[in-house]
Design brief:
Largest sheet: none
Mean pLDDT: 84
Radius of gyration: 17 Å
Distance between the termini: 22 Å
Structural class: mainly alpha
Number of strands: 0
């Protein structure tokens, strides 16, 4: 397959993944993996590794942008991240004990439903309201939410970014920008762990696909994060809702095409 075709496919995948990451803290794997598998014929395990590697820098630069604009809760993000990583292992172990348990389309449907949620019922919580919650309660909520996200991710193998965004806005009561900033902060570390383990087990991926996906996802995530931090809450809710809905429908279409 020509380098030009790889570049075009990776550009489209990086565009969708970068916008999803920068605007909504969405995992790049939800977009990049099915695109690479469908249009470039890359093995699923290798495609997931490339997607996770693309997620690392995209999430990191997005987290930096949100943090620079004071839309990142590092302390509770670290608490939640620890719980996510620990219970992902527990969920993976539990899944190995249950034959044929899978929910391959879980993250896709969650993406679409969350998109509709932001369009119909936007998150208008303020930082002032967030500050009224006690530190002890916030840490407890972060532990419980992180444990739930980690276990479900380990058990069904998908949905981490979307579940974190849902719990941060609905359960922990974060305003949308801080929720996205905290989500991408966590995703940068979880994606790094996942990418390294995939490459260690599966070997080196297609170099050009890796480079193209990392660069394009990083570029669009940076652009999206800059726009998101300057947007009004109501506008951001609509943009996030539309992007999640469109990306969910697009990925679902790609998976249907595969079948």
């Amino acid at each position: 397959m020509s380098l030009l075709i790889k570049g075009i496919v990776c550009f489209i995948a990086g565009l969708g993944a970068g916008l999803g990451t920068g605007f909504a803290g969405m995992s790049a794997a939800a977009v990049i993996s099915p695109v690479l598998i469908t249009f470039l014929g890359i093995p699923a395990y290798e495609a997931v590794g490339i997607a996770l590697a693309s997620d690392v820098l995209a999430s990191a630069v997005s987290a930096y942008t949100y943090g620079k604009n004071k839309n990142l809760d590092i302390r509770n993000g670290l608490v939640m991240m620890g719980a996510v990583l620990l219970f992902t292992l527990a969920g993976s172990w539990a899944a190995s004990r249950v034959p044929n348990t899978t929910m391959g389309s879980f993250s896709v449907f969650m993406t679409m439903l969350l998109g509709i949620r932001f369009l119909v019922r936007p998150v208008m919580t303020t930082k002032e309201a967030m500050a009224k919650v006690s530190v002890r309660k916030r840490v407890f909520q972060s532990l419980v939410s992180g444990s739930a996200v980690g276990f479900i991710c380990g058990f069904v193998g998908a949905g981490g970014g979307m579940m974190m965004l849902l719990l941060l806005t609905s359960v922990l009561g974060y305003e949308l920008k801080t929720a996205v900033g905290t989500s991408v902060f966590i995703m940068a570390f979880t994606a790094l762990t996942g990418a390294l383990s995939h490459f260690a087990i599966g070997g080196a991926p297609d170099l050009w696909c890796l480079v193209f996906c990392v660069v394009f996802t990083l570029l669009w995530a940076r652009i999206a994060a800059l726009f998101a931090n300057r947007a009004e809450p109501k506008v951001l809710n609509r943009v996030v809702g539309c992007i999640l809905l469109v990306l969910g429908m697009a990925v679902l279409s790609v998976r249907f095409f595969v079948r």
